[in-house]
Fold this sequence. Notes:
Blueprint: H1 15-22, H2 26-33, H3 43-56, E1 74-79, H4 87-101, E2 105-110, H5 115-124, E3 130-142, E4 154-160, E5 167-171, H6 173-186, E6 192-195, H7 202-217, E7 227-228, H8 234-245, E8 253-256, H9 259-272, E9 281-283, E10 300-301, H10 305-320, E11 329-332, E12 336-337
Helix pairs in contact: 1-2, 1-3, 4-10, 6-7, 8-9
Amino acid sequence: MAKSAGNASTGRPTMMNVAMAAGVSQATVSLVLSGSKGARLADSTRSRVLDAAQALGYRFVRRSTKPVPGGQSTIVFIADETSTDPWMTLAFEGARDKALDFGAHVLMAVSHGDADVEASVIAGLGNLPILGVIYGTILARQVQIPQAFADRKIVLVNCYDERRKYHSILPADLLGGRTATEHLLLAGRKRIGFINGQQGVDAARDRLRGYKQALASNDIAFDPTLVRPGNWQPSTGYEMTNALMALDTPPDAIFCANDMMAVGCFDALRHMGVRVPDDVAVIGFDDREIAQYMHPPLSTLVLPFYEMGRTAAELLLDISGGLDTAPTRTKVECELVVRESTARPLAS
C-alpha cells in the first residue's frame, strides 16, 4: 500500500519487500540473511527468502564509499528490551544497514530501562568515535533521556520526549488502524468489532482512533458495544470475541489490535462453528511470524521497525553531517498485508 520512509529516495528493495515476496515476516528475513545459526527455520523457508532476495536484488549488508560525517564511525543503539518481541532487533538491523552504507558501525546495548545501566554504557565507550545515539523502546511511549546522554546527538525510535527536544521515529498506528478498518469496509463488511490492546498504551489509543476515523469517513455511526478491551494476549482475543458474537447483532468482521489477540479470536470463532472469512472476516496488526501460518492466513499490518531503524540512522547521519533542523516526530506507515482472512464472503 504505502511506501515506508527508509528507501523512498533510493528506490532500493527493502527487507519488507523481500518479506512480502517470500510470504514471511521481516523477522524471518533478518534471521535467514544474517545467517543466524540458532533460528529454527524450515529449509523451504530459507530457500524462499534467499530466492526472493536474489530476485529483488536485495543485499543484507550494503557498504559504500560514502564518508562518515565528521570522521566519526560508531552509532550506539540502546534498547530497553529485545527478548520478548523482535521489534528492537529489527530496528537495530535497519540502523546497521543504513550505517554500513557510510562505513559506520552500530553497537547495541540492552538497558532494561535502567538509567544507571544506560549511563554506564556511555561511560564504558571511552574514546570511541561516537557519532550519536539511537534510543529505542519496545512499547511506544514517552521517555526521559538520561543526563549521561545530554551532550550526545540522539534520535528516538518508538518513543518520544515530552519537550520535543529530540527527533523521534514512530509507527503510524493511527493511520494503520484506519487502513485496517477501511480494508474490511472495502471487503463488504458492514459491522466491524474492535478488540483493543492494553489501556494507556499509545499504540492501543491510536489504533482505536484510526478505527473511529474510518467509520466516520464512511458515514458509519460509532457503536461502543463493538469495542472491547484487551491486553495483547490470545486469552483476551478469545474472551472478547465471545462477547462480541453474543451481541444481538454480532459483527461480520473483527479488527484485533495485534496478531496475538487474533489467534484467540480465531479459536473462539472456530469453537462456535463460525467460519473465517465466510461468516466473519478478521484482521490483525504487527505481521508476526504466526500470522502467515494461521488457518486461514491472517491479514494484518506490518510494524515497520526495520524501516524506522534505517530512518533513525539516516537522520543521525544527516545531523552529524551538519543538518540543522528543528526536532520532528516522523511517522512511518504500516503496510497492509492482505491474506485470506479478510476475503469477501461467499455468495449466498
